[in-house]
## 1
Amino acid sequence: MIFKMTSQTNNNYFHKGFYENGKDNIRTQLEKIRSINPAKVFKNGDCIYYEANNFLHGICHIFAYVLHQKFGYDILELRSQSGTMVHWCCISEYSGKEIYIDVRGATTDYDEFLWEFQPDIGKAPSKTKITDLADYWEEWKEEEQLKFADEIITKYYNYYSLD
């Protein structure tokens, strides 16, 4: 795979996407990206909203799955030192470094990537590549979430594509 450099910090870590706007702005930006699920309306008429932020906390496995389907990236599960599942993302390689891709975009800076999950994840989380996706199919049956993840990736394609 050939990667085009779009953003590099002065510490030689590559990052792009929402990372480029600084970690303090990431959640605010993700909360503004919303999808209404019209198929699920509460009795009082309120709709269920999905925010892009949900793909960072709660349904990250859905976003990782759609990234895997679109780009072929490996899926990575991160667990805390106590064994609790904390986050799913995708992983690839850039200039000999691991690059982590989730709803925030892509970064080779592991500390930048983990920042959102501190202190839940600890200093040395375990990383496991998910290779048997069939084991998780039940978790990916929510069509509206899959569609919303695909819409985000399509709209912000350059945040997630590494070509």
Note: Confidence is low (pLDDT under 50) at residues 1-5.
## 2
Amino acid sequence: MSDKSLEMFRTLASCGNNSATGRIFNTSHSTVLRTIDNLETYLHTKLVNRDSTPLTLTETGLFLVNLIDDEMCTSQQIRRYICETGSPQIRIYFSFPVSWHTVSDRLGKLKRNDPSIRIKPYVADKIRIRALMKERIPDITILPDEVCIRNYRIVESVNNYEWGIVASPGLPLTDKIYIESDNLKKTPFIIPDEQSCIDPIREWIKDDARIEKADTYNCYDVLHGMIKDGYGCAFAPLEAKESLEQMGLVFYTCYPRIFTSIYFYSRWYKDMSDELKDFFEHPDISLI
């Protein structure tokens, strides 16, 4: 990809005409066509829509023009863009109770470092996510437990994912800034529909029978409705505190504190951007 071919392409983008571009470069119409053909062959993508008059640019052609105008055109940048648009979405699957807030800041920074990355989040239960991982569908998954599936590996774990108690403001549970299991005697519980949370919650309550009788929920909207309808109080992640309080609920910190773990998995694949490759290979770098 020579400077002259880029200059000719930029001129063609401005003129919209092969003959006019040839006159500016003092060359033939066929030479302009051949130069653009060679450039497209080199980049393995179409830059110009030839079936319109004047000629128009493809999305990749527009991107290349902007790079040239900003005086920062390199083969690496345009190839990265082509790879990203060829697979435009980074598919991230996470299961409840893993809050989107857990990863949103990190992924936001990833996006700011490389705006060409398109992030698409999906919510599904962990059984469904495991099935999708076996089909190699997700690029990144976030799960509340460890799994061993070919082509995926853990790139990060969060071991202090804290839980608290959520209740209706009309149901005062304690006058302290934290809550203990003794404050909840004869209180019906709502727990997440997630088996990995049950053991630490059971340990905190010290009453197996009450857990067996608990209602469950699978999203915060359902949780809000159940509490408002008098189903009881609920266990929820600390990271959801702000959102739940905006719904008119009260959040209590547990004592002793309840912790679970969550795990970030990535799938290695080719043609990824440099920033995403750093995220996959070195999750502890400053990007995160």
Note: The chain is about 40% helix and 25% strand.
